[in-house]
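Throughout our pipeline, every protein is held as a single compact record rather than as scattered files. The remainder of this section carries one protein's record, kept here as part of the documentation.

===
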Amino acid sequence: MGCNPLHALYLGAFLPRPPPPLPPPGGKQDRARAIEAAVMAHWRAVRDWSPSRRMIRLASPDQEQEEEKKRDLPRNVVVEAVQHLLEWGRQRDQVRGEKHRRNEEGLRPPPSSPQSPSGGSSSCPKAPCSEASQPASNSQPSSGETSEILNQESVNSSPAELDSGVSEHTNISSKEKTPSGLSNPHSQKSEITVNERFLKDYNNIECIADGGFGCVYKAHHLLDSTQYAIKKVKWAIGKEEKVTHEVEALAKLSHENIVRYYTCWTGKDIFPSEDSDSSSGEEKLHKCLFIKLELCKLTLEDWIYSEESTKNYKDDAFEKFQEILKGVAYIHEKHFIHRDLKPANIFISFQNIIKIGDFGLVTTGADDIPVKRTRKKGTKSYMAPEQVGQEYGNKVDIFPLGLIWFEMLHRFKTKSEKSKRWEDVRDGRFPPEFIKAFPTEKSIIKKLLSKEPSKRPPAAAILRMLLVHLFRSSSI
């Protein structure tokens, strides 16, 4: 008995051999001849590789020639094998194409077996499974049988796999599937959003912050299986430019210490916290801007008053403040002014890296030249004195840096203690215990809190001052 051509083809794939020649140009006959030659080469490689063949070669040349005549594969067998392989490939592509088409259109094939008593369909129909366990059949399916295979809920991969006694089933659950194999997005519902794109691309949507700006959600993206922060801002009529300032700035800023911006979209959505008092009980839709951002672990404010910050606190605070300065220096280098720097708007990533965020009040500014701007933009407790007026430059971002660093080094025990001492700190009057523990830091912070903006050093200069202080303290 000669070697099975399919076995020769599969086994030959594992043998060391030179690459096969390219098929000659031409029609189907030339391609069939090239495949035939490749099958013959694989079969001879398997034959010559067998131990019995090596023994025959060592025995005598005459015996080798006689065995070779007996073992030579007839031409009609090779042609039949080639035709079988071509038909197998054609039907395999047809099956795959049909499955892909169903997934694209969201269709479900009619079930080939009756439902179970519980009402659900069986995950593995009995007919195909029993056929797979039966002995292999050498007959190829006709076109009618092929269409029948395609219509089954459990689709067989190919006639070649049926011949080898293996059947692969693709089970389709009772829920519809999207092309990516995910749950049907139209079936998702949420009490905090009704935006179609938001519900289509994300699940596990959870509100993590809200305020006058809008809401921030933590959401899991269905395609890349990653969690993101989605900021939803209400699109005020007549104030479109102010709404888009944040994404325009984020699109131009790319730095390790700035929250990463991915994309944005507009759409209509609800604000349950605002519309809850509506007497009609109907959900009011508002035009919104959705901003997809990097999700961080916690805010700097959370870190300052957490137990995690107690270990190596001074060194960690020094390192984190350096990263804040790098981010602010980059923002000013790109001619932007943040205008709302505070611990609640500075974040710490899952890799423990500082990320400056919340650019809702960002504006443009060339260096430290005062320009007429909107009054009282920012958080009052961290706002620079000149920010109450209309003319100011990027030095309004330096003043809150002094307050932030003081708060990082001297944590208040309660909010009431902070409210009592905060005005003194803004005026440069620090508690005695702070002056004793941080004499050098006190002098630097006092410069940052100068009432005169021109006397405040830029962020890059503050960073150099910190490095000099670090060098001197380490050399002592």
Remarks:
- The two ends are 90 Å apart (CA to CA).
- The first helix runs from residue 5 to 12.
